[in-house]
Amino acid sequence: MPQIIDGKAISAQIKEELQRKVAMLKKTQKTEICLAVIQVGSDPASTVYVGNKKKACAYIGIESLAYELPEETTQEELLALIDALNHNDKVNGILVQLPLPDQIHEDEVIRAIDPKKDVDGFHPQSVGALCIGQPGFVSCTPAGIIQLLKRSGIKIAGKECVVIGRSNIVGKPMALLLIRENATVTVAHSRTEDLKEVTKRADILVVAVGKPKMITREYVKEGAVVIDVGIHRNEDNKLCGDVDYDDVAPVCSAITPVPGGVGPMTIAMLMHNCVEAGTVRLE
Ligand code: NAD
Description:
The protein has 2 domains: 90 residues, 3-Layer(aba) Sandwich (Rossmann fold); 124 residues, 3-Layer(aba) Sandwich (Rossmann fold). α2 links the parallel β2 and β3. α2 packs across α10 and α6 packs across α7. 42% of the residues are buried. The chain contains 10 helices and 11 strands. Nicotinamide-adenine-dinucleotide binds next to α10.
């Protein structure tokens, strides 16, 4: 049977480490860390995500300021709030929950956040810094995957890694992080010809394709490590990933389950970025 990569346990370990660090910062440097979380409208999924982020802050000892704005908020109003938070010295991190209503341009909002407070790692300056190997915030889901691999004792350097998906928040930063860890990286996407031939080369296969159970054992090399980023609800309202777990698990050496794999890591790394924002000056 493969090694089951336990994202629940690893994220709990990271959150405990952060809790100790935050307590120490409070005690020795009188430093308080504060995250501003902005939600526009009342999309139920966003409300759950925002609630989970606030809970994680409370657990770790980070103050969270919640801004719940009405659905009809204008772009100017949102940008004015971000500007005020950029200039508020008490606030270390700013998070705008996506997606935003249609009248607001996501790109402009992301660009308005001070890169020093960009704990989601979505600002072009953060992405550029990652690309050229300079300090900056890294998108939480791919950063969490690197932690999953490292803390599960899986070697990345020199390995053949294939990432399926080229989105700005998962696929692209994932590829850049794997390069930073000295892997040989291929990015496959919707226009890749003969996907199976490409994915079967992977020692480590990261799947962020957004299609429930698309990846079956025909896509996987015997003994590969398989990381499933997808989150979906199946016909029985149960969570499943982009990987057909029951089909793939018997042929791989390690695999992340859904739920309990990549999912819990995203919030843990957001908390990590908040603590960094409160302690490190990113110039
Ligand atoms: P996306 O829709 O932005 O990107 C999907 C990518 O898959 C695209 O780059 C596309 O080119 C590629 N793709 C689509 N169909 C393909 C095909 N048939 N063959 C090869 N490539 C194909 O999605 P995303 O935001 O990157 O998210 C991917 C998945 O991860 C989703 O299921 C999402 O819900 C999940 N997700 C999970 C977390 C988490 O915390 N676990 C965070 C973000 C996203």
